[in-house]
Amino acid sequence: MSDKNALIQPDRGQQAVSIHLVDKDGLEKFTKGLTVPQRAVLEAARFDASAGEYVILPEGDGWSVAAGVADAGTLGGWCMAKLAEKLPAGTYRRAGGEPGAAIFGWILGQYSFDRYKADAEDHGPRLLLTGEPAQIAALTAEAEAVMLVRDLVNTPAEDMGPAQLEAEAEALHKAFRAEIRVTRGEVLERDFPMVHAVGRAAGRSHAPRMIELEWGDPKNPRIAVVGKGVCFDSGGLDVKPSAGMLLMKKDMGGAAHALALARLIMSANLPVRLHVLVPAVENAISGNSFRPGDVLRSRAGITVEIGNTDAEGRLILGDALTRAGEAGPEFIIDFATLTGAARVAVGPDLPALFTREDATADALLAAGKTVDDPCWRLPLHEGYREYLKSDVADINNAGSSGFAGASTAALFLDRFVPKGVEWAHFDTFAWRPTAKAGRPKGGEALGLRAAWHMLKARYA
């Protein structure tokens, strides 16, 4: 696609096609203001101002667009996304008002992942004008963060392994002068033993590593953002069926969210001391794979019996959360494509949210609702801790019951977050199985904007 920054431009009176956004309550008034030929086109198209519907109207020597929206007075972020997908290349403005938050969906409506297509279609950019240029930078930054998640998740594992995640972190390090630290090899085995154990079977070409970034004034409040970076998940020796592996390139979706959120925080110069942690591995199968029944030592000193090698994400996050807690943050957020149970519970559109404190959940849920990035809270129920009991170690990585899989996984992570530290865990799908306007099938950011707007409200 074209330069994302060029898709939204300040309105300086340029020639542009008018877009009339009409809701059902305003349709009659809008129709009365049309010419006879325009009303005939509207009637022939059976336009009733349903959200997502649009029709091309003749206007002088040119044309304009009538588009249905749910509420013309309060525009949602996605209300113009379909127009951005479908309209011809050119320059547009909203007639009689500003696009507002619809700028976000306008940009994402022109997203495509065509890295591997030799004959990728290029319909040219659809530019949108706004008389409120102050909105351009913030909404463009959010759209670019979402596109970063999509690009990383959509990229196949051969081209998006631990080394490529490190390269993405390196790019942030250079762009924002952040400090970077990458731990590999024998030091990884010593300092992050569960990360090493999960990733060692992938060999040298996809060797495991812990990636850390630190940025911001050390005097500012310290926060940590952690992302699960399993670049491909075979299931290990508890191997997945072939159908279960088809989407496992997306198992680093948590890392993609963490890097995108870090980019938003740093580009906005949010007054925090940011610590980003991405344990990057491939859960492969070889002669040195970790096994069911093994007992792993963790960075925290907690011993973990392996009940299932396909429950590997929580292992690498355990070491990462321990490291995050050692630096004394006041708040930790982690993102992970952690459990199928969360998808059964809330489906693909809603990231399951777990927090220790009601106020944390309330703030994240409210932020997500405001920006149309909804989340759903699930319980950290103390009674389910017994499902993680082990006969030979401090804890088992797989629940002994078939119940509450998302909650037991979150409770496993809770063991590695220091007591008294505010913590939020997003069990996100990072994938959209069916397309919607501005949201094609494929990698998706779910929970990212909720977290970002919550942090902005708290620290800006």
TrEMBL record:
One of its GO terms (cellular component) is cytoplasm. Residues 308-315 form the Cytosol aminopeptidase domain. InterPro entries: Leucine_aapep/pepB, Macro_dom-like, Peptidase_M17_C, Peptidase_M17_N_1. Coiled coil: none annotated. GO terms for biological process: proteolysis. It holds the Pfam family Peptidase_M17_N_1. Keywords: Aminopeptidase, Hydrolase, Manganese, Protease. It comes from the Bacteria. GO terms for molecular function: manganese ion binding; metalloaminopeptidase activity. SUPFAM superfamilies: Zn-dependent exopeptidases. Belongs to the peptidase M17 family. This is Aminopeptidase.
